[in-house]
From TrEMBL:
Keywords tagged on the record: Membrane, Transmembrane, Transmembrane helix
Pfam families: DUF308
Source organism phylogeny: Bacteria, Bacillati, Bacillota, Bacilli, Lactobacillales
Taxonomic source organism: Streptococcus pacificus
UniProt xrefs under InterPro entries: Acid_resist_chaperone_HdeD, DUF308_memb
Annotated protein name in UniProt: DUF308 domain-containing protein
Transmembrane segment boundaries: 5-21, 27-48, 60-80, 86-105, 117-135, 141-164
Length: 168
């Protein structure tokens, strides 16, 4: 059990160091998993389409299946750089939408909400962060990659401290 703790600590440190020197890999890995899921969903939809009786088949289901498979395959064959940009663009678009919705909610909320200024400030910050992610997705992916690598290295260091403290 104690050796397992040592191996986990070293593993987290090594993964953190690897991601520190390759920050786009962490975001690209997430995008690769998402692409794999999209392609698998397309294949499952195609299987469902083919398993239906001919008169029950819907051409839109076939079209949707093929689009998912094509998008999944395109993403799976893309470079880490492209995948990280795509993911960060989608995150940026999501943040823009969330910021706009929150701003609209804060402007329409009744006067009983005491922290309306905080809600408005938060929504503006979210909106601006979305703009930054959309305008420079590579920079954003790098920052998140570095942050993730530092978190993993800190976790590894903490695990190693726990291991060495249990040795005494």
């Amino acid at each position: 059990m104690k050796k397992t703790t040592l191996y986990f600590g070293i593993g987290f440190l090594l993964i953190g160091l690897y991601l520190f020197f390759n920050p786009l890999v962490s975001i690209a890995s997430i995008a690769w998993v998402i692409a794999l899921i999209i392609a698998a969903m397309g294949l499952m939809n195609l299987r469902t389409y083919l398993s239906l009786e001919k008169n029950d088949r819907n051409n839109w289901l076939l079209f949707q299946s093929l689009v998912k498979i094509i998008i999944g395959l395109i993403l799976l064959t893309s470079s880490a750089f492209s995948l990280s940009q795509i993911v960060m663009s989608f995150i940026g678009l999501g943040l823009l939408i969330l910021g706009a919705i929150n701003f609209k909610i804060s402007n329409r909320s009744n006067r009983r909400i005491l922290n309306k200024t905080n809600i408005t400030g938060s929504s503006i910050f979210t909106f601006l962060l979305g703009i930054i992610f959309l305008l420079n997705p590579t920079f954003s992916a790098g920052v998140i990659g570095y942050f993730l690598s530092l978190v993993l290295m800190i976790i590894g260091a903490i695990i190693l401290v726990i291991y060495y403290q249990s040795q005494n």
